[in-house]
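Entry for the shared binder. Reason: the reviewer on the internal report wants the predicted structure included alongside the sequence.
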Amino acid sequence: MAPTLIGVDPKKRAWEQDIPLHNRWHPDIPAVASVKPGQVFRVETIGDARNIPATHPQHARNSC
C-alpha cells in the first residue's frame, strides 16, 4: 500500500488534527508534504471527497 502523507483522526474536527486541515489551497498556508512526479501516496480526508477528481489541477498540485 502507498504511504500515507496526511492522516486524520475521524473523531477530531479539521482544526483539531495534528496537521491542521483546510478545504482549499492558499499561498499563505504552508505545505505539509511534497511528492515527486509519479510518486504514489495516500491522503486521508474528513468529509466527502469522492466527487473531487484527483486529476483536477488544483487538487493534484496543491492538496498536500
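Summary line for the report: Confidence is low (pLDDT under 50) at residues 56-64.
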